[in-house]
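Board notes (copied after class):
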Amino acid sequence: MRRYLRVLLVGTVLVFCSVLYVFSQLASSLEARAGGQGRKAPHGAALLQGRGGQRVRKGAGSAGPEDPRWGDRYAVREPGSAGASKGPTELMHLAVVACGQRLEETVTMLKSAVIFSIKPVQFHIFAEDQLHGSFKEILESWPRQFRLKFNYTIYSIAFPSENAAEWKKLFKPCASQRLFLPIILKEVDSLLYVDTDILFLQPMDEIWSFLSEFNATQMAAMAAEHEEPRIGWYNRFARHPFYGRTGVNSGVMLMNMTRIREKHFKNDMTTVLLQWEELLMPLLRKYKLNITWGDQDLLNIIFHHNPESLFVFPCQWNYRPDHCIYGSNCIPAEEEGIFILHGNRGVYHDEKQPAFRAVYEVIRKYAFEEDPVNSILNLLEERLLRTTHTYCGRVQHLFTKKLQHTVRTFQNTFPRGR
């Protein structure tokens, strides 16, 4: 009897220890999974205030150790009055990534956003360190009545440290930074990302309003890469999955980043649903030899497998040379005009598409104090008349159709004096 009790006691102890071990392993597994799935985003970029342009070291939030997967990150924030007393839903967020010789182009894009926007805007500018001082100097030089319309934060370029070199050289320098915005800007609910070669021809408020049109499953919005499949790139040449008939273009991308961070995505690498941060590197490793347009191709692959998550807006919200160089093929722009101009292929800086360059040069040279009707609208209409020898120039009225209304509305609220 005594031997039986001893065996029973030893067995009970062993069972108890086994249960403790299982629970400890489960807890460790869940902890590791939470870290890997971005529930606590590495190096979250809460807005830091830098007085007088001071560079502020940013760690992993206000407390806690830095995540070693990410390199050093810095942020410079210039406090303004834009939205200072507003609720968070009244502030629009605009992000851009600038590397190399993109300073002037980026500033021109930001100017077009500030001139015409109605609600205040928070700019998130990701740039190489040597550009930080120039951005600050230029933005601070704008007239006070326009500076009151925006705040800005300047961030260093940041990728997961173990793959930083691979991400930075993907397609164009730093372009793939946009893939990590939901992870870095963990405190931002929604965001409009644009390439540096974007120009707003109407208030940013209009595209921002698409967020309220998302259904329960949609979390991002982009325009189709092509309207005409016969000249489409993805449907003729892509060696990887892509969204829809002709793919999507990521130069203008509206995001509900809260939904992106929370979603588990279908994919063709595993039967397991993966969160955004878990998905990116395996996707690059699988397709890096098959992709041409870098991060845009990865986005096409993601939304090919998750089409219910994408809202597709019409082509006049991302109007590119492809919409007119072979003849006009963006019907919504023909009906309503161009809302957002995308000067990809470097057309702002050469003579291949003078209609696009004319719009860029007029906005670049516009001085804030000048009458917008004379210095933007009338001047642009005059310059576009010289471009009718090109296919895009033959539809030059599309470039000013919406802009006419935008400029005249802006003139009625034109801030006078410094």
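Comment from the instructor: The first helix runs from residue 2 to 36. Confidence is low (pLDDT under 50) at residues 21-66, 83-89.
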